[in-house]
């Protein structure tokens, strides 16, 4: 008893809650509250995208046919647009080299022609004036025409001296150069002034017509693409009618049912856009050899620049958006009409 009194049994002390054992504060709870729904939303979209890819892979033949049809529909107007844009670039380059040909009268000798060239070069509207002597023109014509022997039999030189005038500006086209043409035609010793820009303007008018045609064609083909997508998604919905009814029966919403089909449309658009981009790259490269041969006949180094990367990315993004829009139009009504019995 004495020992027990000397060494009394100690009762365990009550532990106080330290800072680490305190209940989580409102800020931590709030942080977890908004993260969990976001994770759930991302996980739901990830699962829907995986389901869409699996459904596309399970039907390789029908999926390939749909993607090929969309590829052709996308590549045709885009290819025409790229070609027109590059030919327009060629027309702009030729417009930059637009000139006026000033043909001199036969009685104007070399000295008078040089004085006239200097007078024309001093005009404010003229950037450069270059004299092509009639004797030099005859020699070059004999060398390049293949009729050198026949031309040597002529008693006189039938070619006139020409002053090639490069205007300071070609804004406004050929109509803007008419005042300069009239001013040059009024000079003494000038027989005729010709503007070498009319055929470029004709080319520009033809390209404008082709642009309008391409725009109309693009509208028709995009409408056809949407119809193809709507029909494809509608068939996919009908083939899973019973599955959709079961999902709705257990509480699945229309948005949950709709999401995989939207991803199918986006996936179709992505595949078609990438294939159309590759098709245009190969097609332009194949066509480029012929373009170079034709340009060489006109002493030009023009060639197609290929498919620009920005246009290719725009094509892929546009194809994905079209696939999404087509799928949305298809599922909007059909999903609502399917209800559990």
TrEMBL record:
<comment type="function">
    <text>Part of the ABC transporter FtsEX involved in cellular division.</text>
</comment>
<feature type="domain" description="FtsX extracellular">
    <location>
        <begin position="99"/>
        <end position="193"/>
    </location>
</feature>
<feature type="domain" description="ABC3 transporter permease C-terminal">
    <location>
        <begin position="217"/>
        <end position="338"/>
    </location>
</feature>
<dbReference type="Pfam" id="PF02687">
    <property type="entry name" value="FtsX"/>
</dbReference>
<keyword id="KW-0812">Transmembrane</keyword>
<comment type="subunit">
    <text>Forms a membrane-associated complex with FtsE.</text>
</comment>
<feature type="compositionally biased region" description="Low complexity">
    <location>
        <begin position="18"/>
        <end position="28"/>
    </location>
</feature>
<dbReference type="InterPro" id="IPR047590">
    <property type="entry name" value="FtsX_proteobact-type"/>
</dbReference>
<feature type="transmembrane region" description="Helical">
    <location>
        <begin position="217"/>
        <end position="237"/>
    </location>
</feature>
<keyword id="KW-1003">Cell membrane</keyword>
<comment type="similarity">
    <text>Belongs to the ABC-4 integral membrane protein family. FtsX subfamily.</text>
</comment>
<keyword id="KW-1133">Transmembrane helix</keyword>
<keyword id="KW-0997">Cell inner membrane</keyword>
<feature type="transmembrane region" description="Helical">
    <location>
        <begin position="261"/>
        <end position="287"/>
    </location>
</feature>
<dbReference type="InterPro" id="IPR004513">
    <property type="entry name" value="FtsX"/>
</dbReference>
<dbReference type="InterPro" id="IPR040690">
    <property type="entry name" value="FtsX_ECD"/>
</dbReference>
<feature type="region of interest" description="Disordered">
    <location>
        <begin position="1"/>
        <end position="40"/>
    </location>
</feature>
<keyword id="KW-0472">Membrane</keyword>
<dbReference type="GO" id="GO:0051301">
    <property type="term" value="P:cell division"/>
</dbReference>
<dbReference type="InterPro" id="IPR003838">
    <property type="entry name" value="ABC3_permease_C"/>
</dbReference>
<dbReference type="GO" id="GO:0005886">
    <property type="term" value="C:plasma membrane"/>
</dbReference>
<keyword id="KW-0131">Cell cycle</keyword>
<feature type="transmembrane region" description="Helical">
    <location>
        <begin position="64"/>
        <end position="84"/>
    </location>
</feature>
<protein>
    <recommendedName>
        <fullName>Cell division protein FtsX</fullName>
    </recommendedName>
</protein>
<feature type="transmembrane region" description="Helical">
    <location>
        <begin position="307"/>
        <end position="331"/>
    </location>
</feature>
<keyword id="KW-0132">Cell division</keyword>
<dbReference type="GO" id="GO:0032153">
    <property type="term" value="C:cell division site"/>
</dbReference>
<dbReference type="Pfam" id="PF18075">
    <property type="entry name" value="FtsX_ECD"/>
</dbReference>
